Amino acid sequence: MLKITVKEHSSASPAEVLALAGTDFSANRAQIWPNVTTRKLAVHERGETYVDATEGGTSIARYFWERSRYDWSQPGSVKATVIDSNALAAGSTFELRVAPGHNGGCDVEMTLRRDFKRSAAGRIASALNHFGGERLFGSMLRRTLKAVERTSARTAQSDTAKAAA
Fold first, then answer.
1. Strand-by-strand arrangement of the 42-46 sheet
2. Domains by residue range for the chain, with CATH
3. Helix or strand holding residue 78 (H, E)
4. Alpha carbons 48 and 38: distance in angstroms, whole number
5. What's the predicted TM-score (pTM) here?
6. Tens of pLDDT along 31-68?
7. Whether 78 contacts 71, CB under 8 Å
């Protein structure tokens, strides 16, 4: 099993990060996560604290897809467990944990625990994940948090303009 943990700070609030990066499965998800495309995003079931969704990647990851159950019943956390995938073994996980930062904003920890299928797609995904590792997923998390911060800033500006009108 491959385990990768990356940590970053964001100027966005914990609630904004969880809402935009964790629990939003609208078309906006592809604007927040650089590795998600709306062409391969399908929500199969949604509840108050979970969603069952299939996501496909972008760039070299466009060859991979996974169906996962995302659960946010635990405060400050969203955890996805793979149900099916062409590359990842069922039971592989992705977790996003968010806590208030010391000087505002929040601290974000993303942990991936991955087992790979013995298929061609699984072997390729394993090589990419092992090779890219923390550098690849650290970059992805930084880009995601920057997108959350931009979206949060636009929302705040819009709210300010509405209040002034």
1. 2-10, 106-114, 93-100, 77-85, 65-71, 50-56, 42-46
2. 2-157 (3.30.530.20)
3. strand 77-85
4. 22
5. 0.89
6. 999 989 888 899 999 999 999 999 987 776 678 999 99
7. yes
